[in-house]
Specification:
elongated, 21% strand, 155 residues, 6 strands, six-stranded mixed beta sheet, alpha/beta
Length: 155
């Protein structure tokens, strides 16, 4: 249908809106990562803005992410829902949730670097070190979520 046809059917404003919606293109992700919690199955993470905040939000939405943190945490942070508060992320029992994903939560996701160092994932690290289509295994070490690169040639 042409723009004019839609304007005749729906009216001027709605016809133009409908035409634009029908012609809209999906925004392609800038970076695609494949992340595994258990080493067997992978979750695709599509980053549109390539920011560490967006990565953290997508990781927190993954099924099993909080359970992985709880199982990997050995310092007793599970009492009274404080696993959420240790990352400044609120559960339904811990308050308003107004500070979810604020600046204090930027430092719990790390990338396994050379010689086993943990590199804090920042926007700059995402743009320069993380490659599109990379495979990562997530591990919890001392309260940190560490993303370990998996070599595709190890099959």
């Amino acid at each position: 249908m042409s723009k004019e046809d839609l304007i005749q059917i729906c009216g001027l404003a709605d016809g133009i809106r409908m035409f634009n919606i029908l012609r809209a293109k999906a925004i392609a992700p800038r970076l695609t990562l494949y992340v595994s919690l258990d080493g067997n199955s992978y979750n695709a993470i599509y980053l549109l803005s390539n920011t560490s905040k967006e990565l953290m939000q997508k990781l927190c939405k993954m099924p099993g992410f909080y359970e992985m943190i709880a199982n990997g945490n050995t310092n007793g942070a599970l009492e009274n829902g404080s696993i959420y508060n240790s990352f400044s992320i609120h559960s339904k029992y811990s308050g308003s949730g107004s500070n979810i994903f604020n600046d204090s939560t930027k430092n719990f996701i790390f990338l396994a670097g050379p010689s086993g160092v943990h590199v804090n994932v920042t926007d700059e690290v995402l743009n320069n070190e993380v490659r599109d289509g990379s495979l990562y295994a997530l591990e919890v070490q001392n309260g940190k979520v560490v993303m370990k690169l998996i070599n595709k040639n190890d099959n």
